[in-house]
Amino acid sequence: MPVAVPPFAGIYELDRAHSSVQFAVKHIVSTFRASFDDVEGSLVADGAAATLTASARVESVSIVDPPEFREHVVHGEDFFQADVHPALVFRSTDVDLHGDGSALVTGELVIRGISRTITAVGSYRAPTRDPFGSLRAALELRATIDRREWGLNWQLPLPDGGDAVGWDVELTAELELVEAG
């Protein structure tokens, strides 16, 4: 009989150079995508349970031009308000890693000081040695949220009806983790 081997044990830190957190939202006729460049996090696992924590600095959003758009998204009262809430924060309450490589992660996402429970689905790659001897693992997760639940309420009606910006936002996290040592 095969014996189930827990996929993670120990402390894994986010490899910031090889990880990314993005969001995508409908904009008029297409999809607008942006990412956060300053992300940190960790996965702590004892073999039976795991906790994933991560944060992204709002100021590191990849929006550059036009400057007034960046300013509105980063500092606006109806967007992130980075002066008051400088980071988005996630802390898992349940990390469920299946033998087929699929993952289901539930936890609290804090945006603008507002905490809501979300569930992300995706996949994981169990730890493997890299060419330098370190153990590396990966989590790739997706979740869709309604931005209004976090007070991100800006909207502009289109002349022919509808909204300029979608309410649903797709979040994706591609996390490469390195065993702390």
Question: What does the radius of gyration come to?
Answer: 18 Å
Label the CATH architecture. Answer: Beta Barrel
**End-to-end Cα distance:** 34 Å
Helix amount, in percent? under 10%
Number of helices: 1
The main sheet comes to: 8 strands, antiparallel, barrel
- Stretches where pLDDT falls below 50 for ≥5 residues? 1-5
Which CATH top level class fits? Mainly Beta
Assigned CATH superfamily: Lipid/polyisoprenoid-binding, YceI-like
What oligomeric assembly is this protein in? single chain
According to DSSP, the number of beta strands is 10
User: In percent terms, what proportion of residues is strand?
Assistant: over 45%
Number of domains: 1
Question: How would you describe the shape?
Answer: elongated
Overall description:
The protein is mainly beta and 181 residues long. It has one domain (10-179): Beta Barrel (Lipocalin). Helices cover 5% and strands 55% of the residues. It has one helix and ten strands, in the order βββββαβββββ. The chain has one helix spanning 67-75; strands spanning 10-14, 20-27, 30-36, 39-45, 50-57, 87-97, 102-111, 114-129, 135-146, 165-179. It has an eight-stranded antiparallel barrel with strand order 1-4-5-6-7-8-9-10. β4 and β5 form a beta hairpin. The longest helix is centred in the middle third of the chain and has 9 residues, at 67-75. The relative contact order is 0.22. The model is unreliable at 1-5 (pLDDT under 50).
